[in-house]
Amino acid sequence: MRLVHESSGDGPAVDDPSANGADRTVLATAVDVADSLVSQTRGLMFRRSVPADYALVFRFDSARVRDLHMLFVFFPIDAVWVVDGVVQRVERLRPWLGFARDRADLIVELPAGAAADIEPGDRLTLEGNDEH
């Protein structure tokens, strides 16, 4: 599975010639889905780092306000709140003290800096093998 970012801008395609003028970038090829209460509660807690091409994805059945906390997370992350594939918010969260909330049916946690080019209105898509 991979996480793909599609810019809402009108720039030329970067790494996907079939993108019809959209700027598509693969953000992560190592994607974990937090699909149980335990995995959602734990998130990235107690890990010392994650690879540069990593994403932790939280999928929900409906869009509503969702919280993220950084308690016991030892490194900064970029968090993205998504509704129906469209980015609503992008936030850099600090280790231990970070907290943010917004409406989402999908939340993505990425290494700090990985979401630097993502803006509200852009699209995020999970592609490929989905075992969950």
From TrEMBL:
Tell me where on the tree of life, at the top rank, the source sits: Archaea
Q: Region Disordered: which residues?
A: 1-21
Concerning InterPro entries, the annotation shows:
DUF192, Saro_0823-like_sf
- PANTHER family associated with the record: UPF0127 PROTEIN MJ1496
**What name goes with this protein?**
DUF192 domain-containing protein
